[in-house]
Specification:
- The protein has 114 residues and is α+β, with helices and mostly antiparallel strands.
- Helix content is 40%, strand content 29%.
- The model has no long low-confidence stretch (mean pLDDT 93).
Length: 114
């Protein structure tokens, strides 16, 4: 079986996000250590980025920033929105195995380690 590279997952997601962010004047940063990294669980990584980008985008306003990141086997979506996640959302994300750093007035970062 041929494993999918991270770039093949991120590229279409990024292209879609770029259009949305252009309209809303939200900037995007990419912080990937290795876009050639081979991914076993493509569906999980795709779903993570799609879901968390959607969540970040809803929270962001003009001038905010969304960062997609990868460091080793850890993937993150960070946003600079002043809005923060509510306690129930944080608890649910953590119960689902995600790492969440969300403090009022600071960036919100949701991470998945595979």
């Amino acid at each position: 079986m041929l494993m999918t590279k991270l770039i093949d997952i991120i590229s279409p997601i990024y292209q879609d996000l770029l259009k949305k962010c252009e309209r809303r004047k939200v900037s995007i940063n990419l912080d990937f250590q290795d876009l050639t990294m081979r991914i076993d669980d493509v569906e999980r990584v795709e779903k993570f980025f799609t879901t968390e980008i959607r969540r970040a985008f809803k929270m962001c306003e003009t001038g905010d920033k969304i960062t997609l990141a990868q460091n080793g086997n850890r993937f993150s979506v960070k946003n600079s929105s002043k809005e923060t996640l509510d306690a129930n959302t944080i608890a649910k994300l953590r119960a689902d195995g995600f790492e969440v750093r969300a403090r009022f007035g600071y960036d919100t970062i949701i991470s998945l380690t595979i």
